[in-house]
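In response to reviewer comment 3 from the previous cycle, which asked for concrete evidence that the modeling workflow produces usable outputs, we include below a single protein chain processed end to end. The sequence was submitted unchanged, and the resulting structure tokens are shown without manual editing.
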Amino acid sequence: MEMLLMGVCLSLLGLAVAALAFNAATRPESSVTAPQPEVRPVQAVAAPRFFADAVIPAAAGPGGHPATPRVPIEALLLQIENHVRLEQAAAESFVEYPTAALLHSKTVSPFVN
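The workflow returned the following structure tokens.
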């Protein structure tokens, strides 16, 4: 019986705190307004730019093109396919013989996973 009364008292206390918090959150702002600061006219400011119009990399070759050679897409696709094959082989070996060492071991793939 004492535990039941203690639970009821704590519930009423929690309800009172929640009601006070709700009342404070929904209360209209006070009618007394703070003095407003003096409003000055806004000067014209250039619009901020997120991206620059013409950015030339520091190591640019003639004509503003990058000096580094481009990698063909086929080479990138072959590297990705090789990585996928290595990851699948590692997963199959873990499924066949699961150990904690295999679970936490690094793969042979040059990509970080």
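The chain has three helices and no strands. We consider this sufficient to address the reviewer's concern, and the full set will be provided in the supplementary archive.
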